[in-house]
């Protein structure tokens, strides 16, 4: 991380959360630990992220991918030189071995010059069709334990000192 000695870390979390607020709950939990502002992609100019020591990018998973608004935002980012970033997601189903969403988004960020330092994913309540027929999957998720895992994840991202 590019934190200067004696100065607090400046972090931003870009989050698209549209269905049940699952991803926003994770983003806000991480944001509290990192003292980060949490913004929707439409609320931040991509060039403004250059002032952040650490940038998080996350959304719920839709059709086995991150939300299109987040992916479009990442495509619009200017190239950076090793700026620290992390990726996070919530999903009704576990991330399958044949389609690693977090890895795919991390690679997109790396092509933009970001140094993706870690990823986080947990389950989230999902009522996307066909799950809607049975009342959704992953009810009650993220759980208190998953929010605590997000908190611990964010603590590991903070620089020592």
UniProtKB/TrEMBL annotation:
Domain of life: Bacteria
SUPFAM superfamilies: Flavoproteins
Any one GO molecular-function label of the UniProt entry: FMN binding
Domain Flavodoxin-like residue range list: 12-158
Protein name (Swiss-Prot/TrEMBL): 4Fe-4S ferredoxin iron-sulfur binding domain protein
